[in-house]
Amino acid sequence: MSRPYKSYFRPEIDAMQGYTPGEQPKMQQLIKLNTNENPYPPSENVLQALKDLDMKRLRLYPDPLADDLCDLIARHWGISRNMVIAANGSDDLLTMVFRAFTSDKLAVSFLEPTYSLYKILAQMQHAEIRKIKLTGDNFEMPSDILEQAKGTNLLIITRPNAPTGNSFAIAKMREICEKFDGIVLIDEAYADFAEDNCIDFVKEYPNVIVSRTFSKSYSLAGMRLGYAVGNEELINGLYKLKDSYNVDLVAQTAAKAAFADQENLVKNCKKIKETRAMLYQALRDMNFTIVPSETNFLFASPPDGDGERYFKALRDEAIIVRYFPGEITGRYVRITIGLPEEMEKLLKVTKNLI
Ligand SMILES: Cc1ncc(COP(=O)(O)O)c(C=O)c1O
Fold first, then answer.
1. Distance 37 CA to ligand 1 centre (A)
2. Phi and psi at residue 33, in whole multiples of 5°?
3. Where are the alpha helices (DSSP H) in the chain?
4. CA nearest neighbour of 151 among 194, 108, 204, 198
């Protein structure tokens, strides 16, 4: 008789659901606007660097510290090399940060709604979660955020936020970093599409980590590359926690080439911001409620406030956006900014639906 299954998992792992990544449909011929990828290809530099890569080097381990890449990043932001760590996507960084700063005795605060992975990482750590509800139609930060986060060890501010798309006043961010007695992680996955950012905070505040990704603005979601900057002690601590070779050779090669081409980055972000403005206005003209966005997506609610119905109707027309069930989020869909012609198709379909 075979032995019956019995779980030896930690109870909190058995109890949790696990993260559901945005769908990556196999269907061809659809307009994919559901995971905030960039509609433009990566820089020509990347394509060339990958062509030039000596494939024989794949038998060797990559540089465990991704030094060349981190040097480039440090120089660009005017900080020392010891203030940078590279990772296998910013998700990898988030994992390190949760391992480092949360436990069953060390709680975490983050916004609501926000990036859904944080909750899963907290559950893995068996850490208490303090949710800070954003307020009003534009999902603003509550003025008493410091009160609400008090006593937790890690406070995550996603700026600009996902899935809502809005940013938060820089003065408020300063106040939080100055006064919060714990680590402030500023997740800047979308900052290249925003008006400003908090990278320079790491020169002033020893409790601040800023994370970035190559997945969105650098068009390298398939490569899995992210990085964080912060005070040397913080970054040193994260190095203790990272997988030995967390960024592979191909990703390091691609990321160096992409980062070196800042001109391409600026050009693509500008195009996306122009398309975003066009889509915003056109949907507003159709009576959508839309959160002002500083990202490469719009959080938009159709006139009848039924996000799920709109999501399904678009899907029937082979347009995939993201829907987040919930009392408030369920009124909206999140639409990634694609090519202008993809947005035209979305608008045409939407006009027919409404
Ligand atoms: C706010 C936020 N942080 C981090 C990530 C993860 O990005 P990466 O692809 O670098 O793991 C995402 C991805 O959608 C995100 O929305």
1. 10
2. -130, 40
3. 11-15, 44-52, 67-77, 90-101, 117-125, 145-149, 170-179, 201-204, 232-241, 249-260, 262-285, 307-316, 340-353
4. 108
CA 235 to centroid of ligand 1, rounded, Å: 19
208 forms beta bridges with 184
- Distance (Å, whole) CA 104 – CA 106: 6
CA distance 257 to 44: 9
Cis omega (within 30 of 0) on the bond before 113? yes
- Ordered by where they begin, the domains of the chain are 11-42+263-353 (3.90.1150.10), 54-261 (3.40.640.10)
Q: Give, for ligand 1, the residue of 117, 190, 215, 334 to mutate: max count of ligand atoms closer than 8 Å to Cβ.
A: 215
Asked if residues 131 and 177 have their Cβ atoms less than 8 Å apart, the reply is no
Instruction: Report the separation in Å between the CA atom of 202 and the middle of ligand 1, taken as the mean of its atom positions.
Output: 20
Q: Mutation test of ligand 1: which of 94, 210, 213 has the most ligand atoms closer than 8 Å to its C-beta?
A: 213
pLDDT tens, position by position, 139-191: 999 999 999 999 999 999 999 999 999 999 999 999 999 999 999 999 999 99
**Site residues for ligand 1, CB cut-off 6 Å:** 36, 89-91, 115, 158, 162, 187, 189, 213, 215, 221, 226
Residue 300 token pair: 């938009």
**Separation between Cα atoms, residue 347 and residue 335, nearest integer Å:** 12
Q: Which phi-psi region, left, alpha or beta, contains residue 243 (left: φ > 0; alpha: ψ -120 to 50)? A: beta
Query: pTM for the full model?
Result: 0.96
